[in-house]
């Protein structure tokens, strides 16, 4: 990926990992520019946000909050991995789920 594309999209990519609101803000910030680097990280962050909502409202209610805590910790670690990748200018897919997120949300960006 071109260095200029990475530099232009780095701020948006970083914002996408800062809470669900940050993901929404990053999506709209990237809507006009269509930066491919930012789009990659927005797809990863949207996937994490959806997993987090499912974890909180479905798994927590029907399986138990101890399991929700463990999954929540994994989601937090994945968010940190994504944030570090965005800050370093890398398109590094998240472990286990990164390919799924890129496939599921390929129309975003």
Structural overview:
The protein has 109 residues and is mainly alpha-helical. It has one domain (3-104). The chain contains five helices and no strands. The protein has helices spanning 3-16, 19-33, 36-62, 65-87, 98-104. Helix 1 packs parallel to helix 3. The longest helix is centred in the middle third of the chain and has 27 residues, at 36-62. The mean pLDDT is 88.
How would you concisely characterize the structure shown here?
The protein has 109 residues and is mainly alpha-helical. It contains 5 helices and no strands.
Structural class: mainly alpha
- Poorly predicted runs are none
The radius of gyration is 14 Å
Residue fraction in strands: under 5%
Count of distinct structural domains: 1
Distance between the termini: 16 Å
Element order: H for helix, E for strand: HHHHH
> Helical stretch count?
5
Biggest pleated sheet: none
Please state the average pLDDT score: 88
Helix content: over 70%
The outline comes out as elongated
How many individual β-strands? Answer: 0
Comma- or semicolon-separated keywords:
mainly alpha; elongated; 79% helix; 5 helices; 109 residues
């Amino acid at each position: 990926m071109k260095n200029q594309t990475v530099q232009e999209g780095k701020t948006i990519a970083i914002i996408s990992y800062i809470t669900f609101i940050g993901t929404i803000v990053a999506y709209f910030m990237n809507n006009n520019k269509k930066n491919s680097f930012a789009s990659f990280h927005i797809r990863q962050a949207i996937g994490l946000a959806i997993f987090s909502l499912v974890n909180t409202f479905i798994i927590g209610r029907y399986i138990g909050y101890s399991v929700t805590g463990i999954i929540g910790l994994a989601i937090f670690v994945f968010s940190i991995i994504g944030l570090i990748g965005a800050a370093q200018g890398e398109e590094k897919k998240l472990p286990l789920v990164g390919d799924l997120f890129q496939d599921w949300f390929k129309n975003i960006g």
